[in-house]
Specification:
About 40% of the residues are buried. By secondary structure, the chain is an alpha/beta fold. The strands form 3 sheets. It has a 7-stranded mixed beta sheet, with helices on both faces. The chain starts with a strand and ends in a 12-residue tail after the last strand.
């Protein structure tokens, strides 16, 4: 058995909106939305993105990062070193650092923190309308701010939340009207280990929390049925990357995997480390379909049979 320790190089990462982007949000949407997106109530590492000046033109199309359950967006802003039992060290590059190494800057990398950054236990987190509205507002604001389509990378529970944000319509819990789909605003949508059909940990529905039948990750929840009833609304190019070894999102037999369109899918086995995301992203933004599934419908393993 190989045992290793994860040693974070940075425990606390300073990441928030630039004054230029903050002023844009304030002038165009009001102080309330600034607070909802910047999330300074969670500290100085709960958001990122923005120009430095009016002349700070983005060289790349904006990327919006949507984190997963009980995380902050700063999760993607940290690089780690993995110390193995034989004293070897493997450096793991964070998503933001990788993008910057490819020519992106703060003016083209954006994110906010939905939820409370892990204060609520993982089993009690569901997909509230307020989270959906928060991601939807960021997509709209970044599109207006940069003047171009945006790319969206959504991880774990962040994937169904981001998909609902783009789909629009009506919230399943509050019945609030979100508006029409944002399909035209999104160029590439990449779901990474997304819980798009629920979690294998939610086989038995629980009235409240993560596995509830309305806004939870039970595979028959109203939320998941809503986002999966329609197709090809997430953007111009849509990719889903998942693992056959995921013990939370997917726990399925080979028989089910054989039912997938294997000719259009390249599995990334043991897709458990965040460090693989940059490699997948660099492939998906080229729209080549490599290392992911160019969706003709969400052909992912599901936690419910039938």
């Amino acid at each position: 058995m190989i045992i290793f320790f994860v040693l974070p190089l940075l425990l606390i990462v300073k990441a928030d909106f630039t004054p230029h982007f903050r002023k844009f949000l304030h002038d165009n949407y009001g102080v309330t939305l600034v607070g909802e997106l910047e999330r300074t109530d969670l500290g100085g590492d709960a958001s990122l993105g923005g120009k430095q000046t009016d002349d700070d033109y983005p060289k790349k199309q904006a990327v919006i990062i949507v984190h997963g359950i009980t995380n902050k967006v700063s999760r993607f802003n940290v690089s780690y070193s993995l110390l193995f039992f034989n004293d070897s060290i493997s450096d793991t590059q964070g998503m933001v650092d990788f993008l910057k190494s490819k020519g992106y800057d703060s003016n083209s990398i954006y994110g906010t923190t939905w939820g409370d950054g892990g204060r609520t236990p993982v089993g009690l987190v569901d997909m509230k309308c307020s989270y959906v509205k928060q991601i939807r507002s960021l997509i709209i604001a970044v599109r207006q701010y940069t003047g171009t389509q945006v790319d969206v990378v959504a991880y774990s529970m962040g994937s169904p939340i981001a998909r609902k944000a783009i789909l629009g319509g009506q919230c399943v819990d509050t019945r609030e009207i979100l508006g029409p789909p944002l399909t035209e605003l999104v160029d590439t949508f990449l779901s990474v280990a997304g819980a798009n059909y629920g979690s294998s940990l939610c086989i038995v529905p629980i009235p409240v929390g993560t596995c509830n039948r309305r806004t939870g990750l039970h595979c028959e929840s109203t939320f998941l049925q809503d986002i999966n009833q329609q197709r090809r609304y997430e953007g111009t190019h849509v990719f889903s990357v998942f693992s056959t070894s995921d013990d939370k999102v997917i726990h399925y037999s080979l028989f089910v995997l054989l039912l997938l369109e294997l000719n259009s899918l390249r599995f990334l086995n043991n897709f458990a480390r965040l460090s693989w995301i940059p490699f997948v992203w660099s492939s998906s933004v080229s729209h080549s379909g490599r290392n992911g599934l160019r969706r003709q419908g969400w052909n992912e393993p599901r936690c419910c049979h039938g």
